[in-house]
Amino acid sequence: MNCSVLMLAIAGGFAGLASADVLYVDGGGNGGDGLSWGTAFSDLQVAIDAAQPGDQLWVRKGLYQPLVPAAGSSDSAYLLVDGVEIYGGFAGNETLLEQRDPTAHLTTLSAAGDPAVLHVLEGNGLGPGTLIDGFTIAGGTGGDTGIGGVGGAGGGMLLSDSSPTVVGCVFTQNSTRIGSGVYVQDGSPEFLDCDFLGNQSVRSGEGGGIYAIITQPGQTQALLVSGCVFNNNSVRQGHWATGNGAGIFAGEGVVLSVLDSDFTSNYGWHNGTFGNAVVGGAIAVLGDDTLIQNCSFITNYSNLGAGIYSAGDIQIVQSLFVANRAVGASTCGGFDCPSDVPDVYSGWGGALFVNSFAIADIVQCTIASNWSADSGGGVVCNGTIRNSVLWDNRSPQPCCGEDPLPLSRMQIEFNASVEYSCVEGLLTPALGEDPPNPNNFPGSNELDPMFVAPTPISSGFGWLTGELGDHHLQSGSPAADAGNNAFLPGGLSGDLSGNPRLIDDPGTVDTGAGGYPIVDMGAFELQEITLCDADLTGDGVLDIFDVFVFLDLFNAGHPDADFNSDGVLDIFDVFAFLDLFNAGCP
């Protein structure tokens, strides 16, 4: 290579590095060159096509819709470009990225329910440098062609061989057969601080929020979900083996990690005829090495594992499961089934169901007031349960002279080992059996954990009979200072509420292991009670009992009643106490 050619090559390289630009999009604009807000592109797809890897697209608030294809042409979607970062949430006058506010300046990408628009966003061959940030993605229907077949796939976003990062997006009211919010095939995307709200997978649906699979045997892919919310997503069974994972469905070979996320009221509906049980009201995962950490699962619904169904090994760390319901599958339309139709195995694992050939590792979890129609209202799994609380999980008692179901089996079914955990009925013998040996459950107890406010459910049907409770511990709880510090996973910055771990409760005798201070059982660490001068009972609450204590001290002439510190007990001390009492504790 001669010198001039070399210089041209170097110059071309620097030109490529310098080509990263900000391009502007304003759907209400006149359509310019995209180099400023005043000359912004008016068509988002035109802007995407004009972008080069490393470019940023700044999209002004408003509603954007992919063009509906002409008759006879292929499907329409916003087709993403590798390496381009697309940001929503701009008012249209910003000069710095950090000036935008996606909450105040809603930027919506919508198919508006048009069946001709199969996906709102579509990506093929995207790398991790591709970013989608700050959009509401809605109204995708998937159509009846392409991936997913009848009913379609990926109404909100379809990703093939792609690993983009999606941040701060809301996927809502998308409706396809599989992966209504997002469909992932052969890629390792990351979803950070996203909401999946009211997406529906119908007609043999799976993965209402996210559906992820691999298509090549022996491959693996990673799916990371962090800081996300899954609420009111649903899947409906159409044939034998569908209707699974209303929040997330992850197939074999997908290594799923879900961190700091909340799953509430996600539903898997059985078809009421000859189908298998629907599984995983919030999450259904078929692969191994699943990690669930710092998550909550509240009022989710399916036939097996209303919170989580796992066919492979799974670790669940510092998570909360409350009021999830694993209901029985109603088969044959309510009529007697033909003799060649087997009973459907259903109604197991209100919080969690893990297949018998897989292993669960449950640590620092609170699993309370979940319900199943058959057994294992709490969890159905083999493996280990450590530093956890399982309480008030219920299943209906059998009828017609059968032996009653012991409380311990309402909490845990199968053969999980239990260490340093509070489990209702753990040491209570079943009818006609010898009492369990406490040595088989080191450091564990069956004492009321003293939740601040338990969640009430009916034993017969698992319905809530009151408000959702508060599953933090009270001072004096037998679950406080009762865990094993060796089981506390490294890397946790605090408990599920973000409060510090390893806080001693002076009102509780330490019964755990590992040296002072000892970690609490469950997802929440009991914090130090902040006392104030008017809290004379020392219980952290100002009430009539503090008044009674003050009056006793005052009438006895005790110096602790000298609230104005003048050395004299008189009416001014009463006024000083009342001022502090009315001000409340900090």
Using brief descriptors, characterize the structure shown.
single chain; 586 residues; mainly beta; Type 1 dockerin domain; 13-stranded parallel sheet; twelve-stranded parallel sheet; 5 helices; globular; disordered N terminus
- As laid out across the biggest beta sheet, the strand order is 1-2-5-8-11-15-19-23-27-31-35-39-42
Q: How far do the termini sit from each other?
A: 75 Å
β-strand percent reads 25-35%
Quick one: biggest sheet? 13 strands, parallel
Query: Outline, from the CA principal axes?
Result: globular
Structural class: mainly beta
Q: What is the helical fraction, as a range of percent?
A: under 10%
Number of helices: 5
Q: State the oligomer.
A: single chain
Rg result: 29 Å
Q: Identify low-pLDDT runs.
A: 1-18
Rounded mean pLDDT is: 89
Please tally the β strands and state the result.
45
Task: Provide structural commentary.
The protein is mostly beta strands and 586 residues long. It is 9% helix and 27% strand. Among the domains are: 20-60, no CATH class; 344-528, no CATH class; 529-586, Type 1 dockerin domain (Orthogonal Bundle), CATH 1.10.1330. The strands form six sheets. A 13-stranded parallel sheet has the order 1-2-5-8-11-15-19-23-27-31-35-39-42, covered by helices on one side. It has a twelve-stranded parallel sheet with strand order 3-6-9-12-16-20-24-28-32-36-40-43, with no helix packed on it. Helix 2 (44-50) links the parallel strand 1 (22-25) and strand 2 (56-60). The protein is globular, with a radius of gyration of 29 Å. The termini are far apart.
